[in-house]
From TrEMBL:
The chain crosses the membrane at residues 27-45, 52-69, 105-124, 136-156, 168-186, 207-230, 242-261, 273-290. This is Uncharacterized protein. Keywords: Membrane, Transmembrane, Transmembrane helix.
Amino acid sequence: MRAAWTLALLTTLSAEPAFTAVAVPSTWVLLPLLLVMYGAGVLLIREAVVRFGGGLPSLVALGLAYQLAEDGLGLQALHSPDMYDAADWGLRALGINWTYWESQIGIHVVLSVVLPVMIADLIFPHLRERPYLRTGGLTATGSLALPGVLGLRFFISATEDPGYRTPTGWTLTYLAGIALPAWLALRVLPRRRRRPGARRDRKAPHPFVVGFVPLYLTMAFLTTLLPLGLEGDPLLDDTMTKPFLLVVAAVTAIPCAWLAARSGTAGNWSDVHRLWLAGGILVSHTAFMMPGSLTSFLVGLVATGLEVLALRALARHLRQPNAAPAPAPGRTW
């Protein structure tokens, strides 16, 4: 149970207190609801992937489904013209906030799902390929995930955009959009899963490089789509057309994913590389929220300091003799 609670806390802290709450302190009031939504949802995803024998592709696919459940069904922010003023951040067409949608795909798949699972694996290496929960715990987790999404609808969406309802057709589309990646993640991808051997002829960059490149690209991705610190207009709003900014953001994110996947097959890829990869993204996403105000800067400074201290503590843990068994060859996360 300790590993399960750790993952629930990690995903909640990564998604909100270390990100949104830096610029919007009122987010802390919603922490109990967010713990249920993020904690139960991501824990359920991780357990499903492990039990069905999936890997990183399955985790990403369920992360996409999770993002649709949260932003499409819960917050209704993908369609609402007023929620968070997201319609003003970029492209809105056919009733959809496309810029907001793309930003949330990156944020939730990486920061809410993949990174917390990666860090939990570093903390509990002996459980990397094993379930955290027994059947009863899994059932309880699943029973909390749905109320978490409903809580977004009735506590956040109803407050930020009272009276708004996503069109029925789009609600059905979101449900199908959740079911399809879930089916792929649990039924198709596990059958096609391969465990590539480590490439002895390929070397991963120095851990500092593995941390710095994602740090830079995370900031570039967020800055392309969202206002710095969620204040004002996006930094590049007047430099390119809104549709082209979506392309630029995607082109920014893809090299980061490619670098991580390619480096993960290198013969010298290690948990230290994973730690730097996670640390670069985490520090960058917190720093993105700091320019909004003096309060945001100070809160972000404290949050970044705590992240660095936690990462250093985990690094010391990884250096302990026999702290972690050798991970599966070629595994990035």
